[in-house]
Design a protein that fits this description.
It is a single chain. The protein has one domain. The chain is about 35% helix and about 20% strand. The strands form 3 sheets. A 5-stranded mixed beta barrel has the order 2-4-5-7-6. Strands 8-9-10 form a 3-stranded antiparallel sheet, with no helix packed on it. Strands 1-11 form a two-stranded parallel sheet. It contains 8 helices and 11 strands. With about 270 residues, it is of the alpha+beta class. It comes from Limnobacter parvus. InterPro entries: HipA_2. Pfam families: HipA_2 (PF20613). This is HipA-like kinase domain-containing protein.
């Protein structure tokens, strides 16, 4: 028998730091107050950032952690930043500083928009072969508020996932099944064979989640009050939820078999029967 090779852990990437350098433009049509601002980063390089104003310290940390996880999983999210914004640069008065969550404006991304036609959204996600990963990701981070407005498509056919501040809800248990908008939409038109295929794909995606290693809060989060405690709280939830995620996914796809935690072997055997 050959030696089993353990895959290395996946480490979370760092987070950018930036400060606003001029008055931004308020972005209309967003459910949050977002400003497109000129900024400079820790190395003094200029870059336009979308600056999300008004988030709590916990919501900023959730955005940061979910963005880091998405990057490790190669899910398409805009590069995240912690932004120190002058109040006068984001619709306020004076030079007081506000800590905000920000994301990089990547050229054509500034023209990215949600698609209102649900069938078209699902078709594009399936064409990109990413729908099962997003659904599994949302299951893990307990993102029960995903909607088509949180999936942007750019003119050059790139996709971006945004708005994760409501994930990892503070009043929910790690073993609780919550709404998973994308998974539920995918399941609406599936027969049992298609459901087994999706279940096998989602179980396979979970293997990558189990390689992610949480260490400590990124140094850049020191700008956020209580960041260390918040990071421990959030990663504790994710670590605990990971022990339940196979069951949660199985019960979502086969809700009438609540006792069943299907393994890949069981799924393959059912398909061959």
């Amino acid at each position: 028998m050959g030696k089993i090779v353990q895959l290395p852990p996946l480490l979370l990437p760092g987070i950018g730091i930036a400060s606003t350098s001029g008055t931004g433009n308020l972005i209309s049509g967003s459910k949050s107050e977002i400003w497109l601002c000129p900024t400079y980063d820790a190395e003094g390089k200029g870059a336009p950032l979308y600056v999300k104003k008004g988030l709590t310290a916990r919501a900023i940390m959730v955005e940061i952690l979910c963005s880091q996880i998405a990057q490790v999983l190669t899910l398409p999210v805009p590069q995240p930043y912690i932004v120190t914004a002058k109040s006068k640069h984001v619709g306020g008065k004076g030079n007081s500083n506000i800590v905000c969550f920000g994301t990089l404006d990547m050229g054509s991304q500034s023209l990215a928009r949600p698609i209102k036609c649900l069938n078209q959204v699902l078709t594009l996600l399936q064409k990109l072969k990413i729908e099962d990963m997003i659904a599994t990701y949302d299951e893990w981070i307990a993102n029960d508020v995903r909607s088509p407005n949180d999936i942007l498509f750019s003119p050059d056919n790139l996709l971006y996932l945004i708005d994760h501040e409501s994930a990892i809800p503070p009043n929910k248990s790690a073993d609780e099944q919550l709404t998973n908008w994308l998974a539920d939409r995918l399941l609406e038109s599936m027969n049992d064979q298609e459901r087994r295929k999706l279940l096998r794909q989602m179980h396979s995606r979970i293997a990558a989640f189990q390689r992610i290693k949480f260490t400590s809060a990124p140094l850049s989060s020191g700008f956020i009050q209580g960041s260390g405690e918040l990071y421990l709280e959030l990663t504790k939830f994710l670590t605990e939820r990971l022990t339940h995620i196979h069951r949660l996914v199985s019960q979502r796809i086969f809700p009438n078999q609540l006792h069943l935690n299907l393994t890949t072997t069981q799924i393959d055997g059912a398909e061959q029967a």
